[in-house]
Design goal:
By secondary structure, this protein is mainly alpha-helical. It has one domain. The chain has nine helices and two strands, in the order αααααββαααα.
Length: 178
Amino acid sequence: MKVWQHLRTINHHKSLVMKHCFKVGLYKQGLLHDMSKYSPTEFLVGCRYYQGTRSPNNAEREATGYSKAWLHHKGRNKHHYEYWIDYSVDPGEGIVGQKMPIKYVIEMFMDRVAASKTYQGSNYTDRQPLEYYEKGAAKLGKMIHPETAALLHFLLKMLAEEGEEKTFRYIRRKILKK
């Protein structure tokens, strides 16, 4: 079990999200981000499956067929679009992603940036969060609400093309001021 390595990774990621959230004025979310990662359900799995280059939840999923830690995490953290999946009010649609409040979309964006920085280290570029999103979550169809997906993709593209400083300023001045 790699307790200290996993704790260091969580703390580093959390401090990056906090720093980024503070830059745009989301102080409460910056402070409270991912607190469930310190719970035994998530922390012990992280220690057991720690690799340092990707989420331990992926390794747990590969080993057991699902990730108990991820199921716990996504059900307690509103910055994950998976938290917002529910039955549609239209019975013919089945289960769909609900529109996320803007502050959680911004926290999700900050989470993706911080995760890329954490796992890529000195190899990080502002294009990586967009590339990671386009390989996975962008292909989810109804699991992420179209407006939520559009805003997240827009911000990830802005980050890739115009950089962190301009993107964070845009979030603070244009998106969160509405």
